[in-house]
Recover the amino acids of this structure.
């Protein structure tokens, strides 16, 4: 979900299909993750139709300072270590 937030912060608008391709998961998984983000208070905006997609409400800023640089590095190292032991695709997606 942090990866999705990063994409939305950078692009402001994308499709569920593009997110699914980027993180190598199903569209349903992305939809569930978006539901969790919405329940957590992220103001998501969806647009139906051929040029539709998902984004965040104009003016919403994704806080990039939730983790210190050190904490982010430690979290990344822990996920890398877990991936080396487990090889789980979900761990790989968290790292992305």
């Amino acid at each position: 979900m942090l990866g999705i937030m990063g994409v939305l912060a950078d692009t402001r608008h994308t499709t569920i299909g593009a997110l699914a391709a980027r993180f190598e998961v199903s569209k349903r998984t992305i939809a569930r993750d978006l539901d969790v983000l919405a329940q957590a208070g992220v103001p998501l905006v969806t647009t139906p139709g051929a040029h539709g997609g998902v984004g965040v409400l104009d003016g919403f800023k994704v806080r990039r300072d939730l983790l210190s640089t050190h904490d982010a590095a430690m979290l990344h190292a822990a996920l890398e270590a877990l991936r080396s032991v487990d090889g789980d695709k979900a761990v790989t997606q968290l790292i992305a």
